[in-house]
Amino acid sequence: MTNNNFNPTLDYAKSLDENDSLSSFKKRFYPLENNQIYMDGNSLGLASIDAEKALLRVMEVWKKQGILIWNTDEGYYFNYGKKLGARLAKLIKANSDEVIVTANTTLNIHQIIATFWKPTKQRYKILVDDLNFPTDRYAIDSQIKLKGMQVEDVIKVVSSKDGMFLDEQSIIDAMTEDVAIVLLPSVLYRSAQLLDLDKLTKEAHRRGIIIGFDLCHSIGAVEHDFNLVQPDFAIWCNYKYLSAGPGATAGIYVNRKHFGREIGLAGWFGNSDETQFELKHNFEQAADIKAFQTGTPNMFSMAPLEGILDIYQEAGMDRIRKKSLMLTAYLMYLIDHKLSQWGYSYISQQQDECRGGHVALVHKQAYRICLALKERNFIPDYREPDIIRLAPVALYNTFEEVYLLVEELALIAQDQVWEKYSTHKSIVT
Ligand SMILES: Cc1ncc(COP(=O)(O)O)c(C=O)c1O
């Protein structure tokens, strides 16, 4: 684990901030009202000046050009999904033509399964885990039903032994001859466990199995090297660490070797450029990643991504990951030193190579502690049954904020402040 010989004083937290080479990026993000301290960038990243400017730029083009927006700058906006994809590809070290920005994560899972899952008598199973975010299962199950097959015949679930972590060897053992495709999360949304994508991909490919990952909890926080890993596909949202805005258009990676594969869900923006505007009724599939688009790109849900990618380009994924690991290691250190006597613990992995960008703090009163934190100007989030997810984000959180958060958590527990809050859950926790 990142070992920084931390010490538990406020001065020390401030000294870490003074030596932080990314500290200048905080000003590029808008502070929340009342200067709330935000620890929820793993759910929805904060708005930045760069994202806003990019959004207004698209608005200007639309205002001034109308329909001609599609031709502006030699078709830049017509190709917006590919253009942004090429820049996003750098974050996962993929080739620039292997990523496109389109639709949302859930729809992209539908697209991927519809495209890659071609069940035969011998190979038809879809391997998943029981800790992934539920939408992945909903999409897969409905794809199975659309083929007239039974979910229980097709789905093979690797179960977690403790409800928090997955055992990679159990996943590999489940890659049997009848498995056609594997979809796993890169980072688990509760425990922040980071799986070894390289090892899992190699083992799947050795057995002739197609494999891909849901990067929702790693994109923008964890470094990936897809030129090394070579998975078959990946999907993710851009609104968490990447801060591209609520409901931002999502990303798909498809390994070049699969270009030309017949697309599962076709639409006119997946047609080849040459014949798209001939508007013929026979679909002529684009030969590249464009095939994975369906309809007209959602420009206003894409533009903020363009802005935030400028920030990522300047900051660099290596520095971002390094600081993120230090922030989470520091948080775990403070939990050990200041919170364990108050009934708090954490379940996140100690080793850097197994940890994503957040820490899962555990307390019996987790839900009510979250309510107390919010009233005291801290924004965490809550996940059933007893987890407070805390995501100090490298681009806009400081070590001092982490320190102040831990102090507040100690005070809440010392005074048992949760007594005054209801256990009744609101819609978004
Ligand atoms: C792992 C994972 N996959 C998918 C989603 C949801 O995807 P979307 O709402 O973009 O379809 C989430 C949302 O939090 C998630 O955590």
TrEMBL record:
The modification N6-(pyridoxal phosphate)lysine is found at residue 240. Its EC number is 3.7.1.3. Homodimer. Belongs to the kynureninase family. Catalyzes the cleavage of L-kynurenine (L-Kyn) and L-3-hydroxykynurenine (L-3OHKyn) into anthranilic acid (AA) and 3-hydroxyanthranilic acid (3-OHAA), respectively. InterPro entries: Kynureninase, PyrdxlP-dep_Trfase, PyrdxlP-dep_Trfase_major, PyrdxlP-dep_Trfase_small. GO terms for cellular component: cytoplasm. It catalyses: L-kynurenine + H2O = anthranilate + L-alanine + H(+); 3-hydroxy-L-kynurenine + H2O = 3-hydroxyanthranilate + L-alanine + H(+). It comes from the Bacteria. This is Kynureninase. It is an enzyme of class 3 (hydrolase). Its cofactor is pyridoxal 5'-phosphate. Signal peptide: none annotated. GO terms for molecular function: kynureninase activity; pyridoxal phosphate binding. Gene3D superfamilies: Aspartate Aminotransferase, domain 1, Type I PLP-dependent aspartate aminotransferase-like (Major domain). HAMAP family: Kynureninase (MF_01970). Pathway: Amino-acid degradation; L-kynurenine degradation; L-alanine and anthranilate from L-kynurenine: step 1/1; Cofactor biosynthesis; NAD(+) biosynthesis; quinolinate from L-kynurenine: step 2/3. Keywords: Hydrolase, Pyridine nucleotide biosynthesis, Pyridoxal phosphate. Pyridoxal 5'-phosphate binds at residues 105-106, 133-136, 214, 217, 239, 268, 296. GO terms for biological process: anthranilate metabolic process; L-kynurenine catabolic process; L-tryptophan catabolic process to kynurenine; NAD+ biosynthetic process; quinolinate biosynthetic process.
